[in-house]
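[Meeting: bench + compute handoff]

Bench side (C.D.) handed over the final construct sequence. Compute side (W.E.) agreed to return the predicted structure before the next meeting so the bench team could plan truncations. Sequence as handed over:
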Amino acid sequence: MQQYLARRLAVSILVVWGVTLIAFAAIQFIPADVVDIMLGLKNTPEAAAALRHRLGLDQPLWSQYLNWLWDLFHGDLGHS
C-alpha cells in the first residue's frame, strides 16, 4: 500500500509540474505583447523598458518561470 501511495504521489507531482509548464508556455506564446497592451497610448521605449523590468520580463525565461511558480504557490496570481 505504501508503494502504491508513493507512486501515486510521485505521478501527481509530475502531473502538476507538467501542467504548470504548459500553462506558463501558453502565456509566453500569446501573440500580443503585454507591455504594449498595458501602456496603451503612453507607450514609449523608456516606459516599455521600465515596465518590462518591473514585471521581470527582462529576465531569462527560466527565471521568469521560477518566479511565476513561486508566486503561484503563494497565491499571487498577478494583477488584473
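W.E. noted at the follow-up: The longest helix spans residues 2-28. C.D. will use this when planning the next construct.
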